[in-house]
Amino acid sequence: MTMIGFFFLLMGVSVFVVSAIGLLRMPDVYTRMHVGAKSPTVGTLFVVIGAIFIEPEWAFKLILLATFVLLTNPLSSSVIARASHKSGMRLENDECIDALTEPKEEKK
Description:
Elements (H helix, E strand, L loop, with lengths): L1 H24 L3 H26 L4 H28 L22
Helix pairs in contact: 1-2, 2-3
């Protein structure tokens, strides 16, 4: 069981490393926000699963921790993206459709 736990811990750390590299390589705040929200959530879940295999008596607390991360991380990344959009941050690629901008009214 301990070896399985260490395997999941290694997987979680690997996801964190890939996420850190992705944060450095992404061109704008929105893609960085995506990398900064999705990857750490998966990495944290791998670490929590590994810790459950290593210390089974901590399972309840670790499941609560994983639930908290699953509920708060996507919400916080959504708030950061909306605040960035409202402050005027633009996408690196202007060819993308911006679904949050309000359509301009036509003058008659």
